Protein: TetR family transcriptional regulator
Organism: Kribbella pratensis
Amino acid sequence: MTEDHGELPPGLALSWGVLPVQRRGPKPALSIEQIVATGIEFGDRDGFEAISLQRIAAHLGVTTNAMYRYVRSKEELIVLVNDKAVGLPPELPEGWRPAAIAWVDAQVKLYAERPWLLDVPIRGAPVTPNQLRWVEAMLTALSATGLSQHDNLGCLLLLSGYVRNYASLARQLGSSADAPVQAEQVGRFLVPRLIEGGYPTLTSVYLNQEYEDGLDDDLEFGLARILDGIDVLIAKR
Amino acid sequence: MTEDHGELPPGLALSWGVLPVQRRGPKPALSIEQIVATGIEFGDRDGFEAISLQRIAAHLGVTTNAMYRYVRSKEELIVLVNDKAVGLPPELPEGWRPAAIAWVDAQVKLYAERPWLLDVPIRGAPVTPNQLRWVEAMLTALSATGLSQHDNLGCLLLLSGYVRNYASLARQLGSSADAPVQAEQVGRFLVPRLIEGGYPTLTSVYLNQEYEDGLDDDLEFGLARILDGIDVLIAKR
DNA sequence: GTGAAAAAGCGTAGGGGTTGCACAGTTTCG
DNA sequence: CGAAACTGTGCAACCCCTACGCTTTTTCAC
């Protein structure tokens, strides 16, 4: 009955709570939950870079190497931390369009709270439990459109990519209070070169100072484009 | 006449060819061009991780520290390598829609040739010359839509985000010849847990094996959605 | 119970990587 | 012809991840 899952991607088994059975030897001083929780703590406080086996080990009063009794590699740790940190999706409202908006908003909020999630490298299609909860939620909402499953997957990809992109842009523009100062300095440097270098459209964008305003509008804008596009598809089929 | 650009983001000045003037002392043994070219070489051969000051220095027959005479930090190097590697955009056809498709295709091709570009962390809005060439090209194409500059920027963000996302998905699915084997193993592990864990929609997706087929179709699919969405907007205004 | 097996944790070690500082050599300006 | 400025180098510190071997602890089997 002991399943033999051979070579699974790092973190897959652990994220689903499948631990290697142990029979003899001292009880582990730590638990995976503890380790993962510490990782999240560090991420929240000091960013993605701060999530290191070394630091976690030190914080838990253990040597770095002891970590490798629990986790096969740093990558595995990251996968676990990531899945735990994304948490569960919210309840979505009725109707695919409101649902999509709510889903996107929730992710934007999540990324705003834990910007370091954007630094987690994407290794493959989502396979961990919480990530799949999000996928499941949106997919069931989309099933009301009457589109094929394949189309729904395409829409999902579209939406999740959009959120991620928006969030990562919002982060870098929003953070650092000196952003406006910096931006102005960059503009002073850039504009003459744009003019001389043959970037007419960009020059006018810069001169109209279109680069700065309303990021919230942008979220809504792009999302509206995507949803309208999906609507067109629905009408077509 | 010597401009004093104070604190500019790393790589900005250098990417535009503004070098700190030198008046005395030995001539540099290396040039920035050489260093950047070596970086690209390593990236192409062994991926993003392989781009390190240490390796480049060794390859050029210099100590690691000598690099810091040319580049203020690794981050600066990465910015330069990135801009050089993205190169120039292609000539775009007439009409905003064909232009957008060509632009997207070109980027997909670029990311297929240099997948490691997807690993370059995005630090901020594009400011380096080649990156801005791409922006400029798409922006001028979009100006034919009659939308506002602000709307055009939103569309651009939408498109570039979409490409990036698609490319990063395509990479991880396409690479590694054992991907199908791996995928099957993952499926065997995952499906029972999806059934038990309350993921009905995903379960059916997995059982229908929707997860595997045509990635090329997906590119076209999402792009069509976005362009349709933009079309709706144009009609509305 | 008691001994052996298994597993945990530690120490040591090594291999990468980025960066700072003091030093010696080279070029060019005054 | 100095002296200033800038070069590359060596040394060193500091992170990070990971492998190996050893000691200690626990538990199973007898």
